[in-house]
Amino acid sequence: MSSEHKRLNLSAALASVSVALCLVILKLWALDQTQSLSVAASLADSGLDLLVSALGLAAVSYAALPPDHDHAFGHGSAEDLSALGQGVFLLVTALALATVSIERLLTPTPVTLAAEGAGIVVMAVSILLTGALVLWQRHVARRTGNRVIAADSLHYVSDLLPNVGAIAALWMSSRYGISSLDTIVGLLAALVLFIGALRIGIGAWHALMDHRADPDLIAGIETIISAHPGIMGFHDMRTRTAGSRTFVDFHIELDGQLSLNQAHAIGAELRRRIIDTYPQTDILIHKDPYPEGEA
Questions:
Q1: Report field, pTM of the whole predicted structure over 0.70
Q2: Domains identified in the chain, total number
Q3: Cys-Cys with 38: which of 75, 148, 179, 185 at CB 3.0–4.6 Å?
Q4: Which DSSP helix (H) or strand (E) runs through 288?
Q5: Are residues 185 and 131 in the same domain?
């Protein structure tokens, strides 16, 4: 991983922790003022954000360490472990929020909200901070391919629904005295969190279980190999992911009459072309004589 990519990943992770901490403080005050379930839903989500963002920062920092004697392939799987933890925490939060929302929905006496104007201001500030963070995270994820940053960005995008819903619920309560929308927003937020938990958790699980790389990436690499001069065929391609890196190894078939230096030059140039196109890949190429068995 380049020093620039490390710097970008760490900056996005630090920004995530900072924004989450600010939002938790703001929403704690707003919840105390409004007693709104939709604000509580947003607060719970921000509290979870702070926790998983802190874990993400630790994972990104650890994953940035270079390979060593005990971790020859680097430390990228720390990102996948962090992403799996995000999925578990999201799932628990979604179930808890759904339970509270259903209980309030079944309560015959509606809950009265208060200080709706203050709550709306806090939610609006939350949307602005979250939007700015998402823009920066997406920029970093595009540049580095970091799985933790990408997952965190998707999660913060899902946060926008509870924040917008909270504003709508508080406005309806202030304008028309209707508080039932607040409970509905809580249920919708729980559904969004549940779906996000499954998406993030499944992706991290696949990576930890050495699931093959994205089919589009594999097809792109196969196209580069097929078009490379001097290569008469290839086979036995294997791929796996660890964090933001993809490990690829395969066999290429070369003219058996080539010298070792010539065969090495073809393989080195092919490796360069693949990495230039897909910078986050780690390429291992085996060279076989063609036809098979010829020296």
A1: no
A2: 2
A3: 185
A4: strand 281-290
A5: yes
